[in-house]
Design goal:
The protein is α+β, with helices and mostly antiparallel strands. The chain contains seven helices and 28 strands. It folds into three domains: 30 residues; 202 residues, Cathepsin D, subunit A, domain 1 (Beta Barrel), CATH 2.40.70; 142 residues, Beta Barrel (Cathepsin D, subunit A, domain 1), CATH 2.40.70.10. The chain is globular and about 80 Å long. This is Peptidase A1 domain-containing protein.
């Protein structure tokens, strides 16, 4: 900072002391000109003049400068190294959405279920009791699933019982013992247990021109023993917890300063989808606030003011619900379920029926073999925000077309419901943890992609374009870094004499300038 002030002072004194005007000139050289090659970074790529790569690099610089000028931040959108795409694999995998992730060094691929209702990322590891990993056990896999072992990853680290994320630390005999974990889930007798480790999660960031890799350290569960649904095909290769707890992947990424404290999920009706860490959604989206549970924001809970079937908004249908991508279907409190099903039954165009094996009570045979027209189902929130359920029914098909459909909701005890994956279809849902709100906007999930379906094998390449400027909203502001420095001391007698003598001889200032510039370089 001091040399800059000195340089400005010398320039002003020079200008005042010069006996006649002098014009300074400099030759401008383009940053990709041949003359600049000797001073380019050793590892820098040098494009050929007017090649496609040449224009791409110029545009990349323009985009970066534009983000800085309009208040862009250091935050970015991240997605798994195999791409942002997710997929549902049907009944074999519990109707949940899955994505491929890479963990460890060297990296190993895992097909993990996406669960906004829990926090921990766990994968099958040094298995004692795990689900089958052979592709022959599943009807829609083209390769075997993998098993993780910390001993085979150069970047893995054991998590000791003294670590702040070790919930089972009180059960340890020593603080240096490796931390055990045990997570139980809502499904009956469903759990995962093992040891906690730290390792690298491989991600990508970037835009339409290029992507860059990101290695993020995360804590994960070395799942040695699974039970219940996790032995029957649900999440056989692990589960990615997306909850608001400290041990979730979005929390690690946000606390590392890599992303905004948010992520988005988008599920399309063709069983494809998208996931982005750090996404805050478009400005046109609607939203509602998250509600605390027992004073804590330990899960994603929202408050529904009322429910509407068609144009009829029903009284006494307010309730609280957990938003959970790890639940396939939607559950409503008994009093809400009763009011909704009664009104739906009056408005639907079909004959009440039942189907063998169907878990739903309100099922119908359509008046034709075409896709049925059903009354709309709308959730109302504060400030008149509304969420129109894209497809509230589950349709059954036969050889000749539609044979029936059911209202895909179920009653649950108590006053807490669950908004499952079937209600999320057709929306880009933003879990904005920083602002404690859930936001949504209609989407077919293709506005974040090139429209290609996610490959069943992680070895296939896929494009991972990010949302456009209109789709992605940031609230950050560019702030110049603070500059620390000492107050200047009173000039010495020697320096005063030099300045005095140079008032007469202006070329002294040019000499001082040259000395200063040569010292800097």
């Amino acid at each position: 900072m001091q040399w800059r002030l000195l340089l400005l002072l010398l320039l002003e004194l020079t200008a005042r002391a010069m006996p006649y005007p002098i014009t300074f000139s400099a030759r401008l050289v383009h940053r990709f000109a041949d003359e600049m090659k000797p001073v380019r970074p050793p590892t820098g790529y040098w494009p050929d003049q007017r090649s496609m790569r040449y224009y791409q690099m110029l545009l990349t610089g323009d985009i970066l400068r534009r983000k800085i000028k309009v208040g862009g931040t250091r935050y970015q959108l991240l997605f798994p190294s195999h791409g942002s795409k997710t997929m549902s694999l049907g009944n074999d995998f519990g109707w949940l959405h899955y994505t491929w992730i890479d963990i460890g060094t060297p990296s190993t691929s895992f097909l993990v279920a996406l669960d906004a209702g829990s926090d921990l990322l766990w994968i099958p590891c040094d298995c004692v009791q795990c689900a089958p990993l052979s592709s022959s056990y599943y009807s829609n896999l083209d390769r075997d699933l993998n098993e993780y072992s910390p001993s085979r990853s150069l970047s893995s680290k054991h998590l000791s019982c003294s670590h702040r994320l070790c919930d089972k630390g009180s059960n340890c005999k020593s603080s240096q013992q490796q931390c055990p974990y045990m997570v139980s889930y809502l499904s009956e007798n469903t759990s995962s247990s093992g040891l906690l480790v730290e390792d690298i999660l491989h991600l990508q960031s970037g835009g339409t021109l290029s992507n860059s890799s990101v290695q993020a350290p995360v804590v994960l569960g070395c799942g040695m023993k699974q039970s219940g649904g996790y032995l029957d095909g649900v999440a056989p290769d692990g589960l990615l917890g997306l909850g608001p707890g400290e041990s979730s992947v979005p929390s690690f990424l946000a606390k590392s300063g890599l992303i905004h404290y948010s992520f988005s999920l988008c599920f399309n009706e063709d069983d494809s989808g998208r996931m982005f860490f750090g996404d805050q959604g478009p400005t046109s989206q609607q939203s509602t606030s998250f509600l605390p549970l027992d004073g804590l924001y330990s899960t994603y809970i929202i408050g529904v003011e009322s429910c509407c079937i068609g144009n009829s908004c029903l009284k006494m249908t307010s309730f609280k619900a957990q938003v959970d991508s790890g639940t396939s279907f939607t559950f409503l409190p008994g009093h809400v379920y009763g009011a909704i099903t009664e009104e739906f039954d009056q408005q639907v165009n079909g004959s009440r029926s039942s189907f063998e094996g169907s878990p739903w009570e309100y099922c119908y045979v359509p008046s034709s073999q075409d896709l049925p027209k059903v009354p709309s189902f709308t959730l109302m929130f504060q400030r008149n925000n509304s969420f129109v359920v894209y497809d509230p029914v589950f349709v059954f098909y036969g050889n000749e077309g539609v044979i029936g459909f059911c209202l895909a909701i179920l009653p649950t005890e108590g006053d807490m419901g669950t908004i499952g994956q079937n209600f999320m279809t057709g929306y880009r849902l933003v879990f904005d943890r920083g602002n404690k709100k859930l936001a949504w906007s209609r989407s077919n999930c293709q506005d974040l992609s090139l429209g290609k379906r996610m490959p069943l094998s992680p070895n296939e390449t896929s494009s991972n374009p990010l949302p456009t400027d209109e789709q992605q909203r940031t609230n950050g502001h560019a702030v110049a870094p603070a500059v620390a420095g000492r107050a200047p001391h009173k000039p010495s007698a020697a320096s005063s004499r030099m300045i005095s003598s140079c008032r007469v001889h202006w070329h002294c200032y040019l000499f001082l300038l040259l000395l200063l510039v040569s010292a800097l370089y």
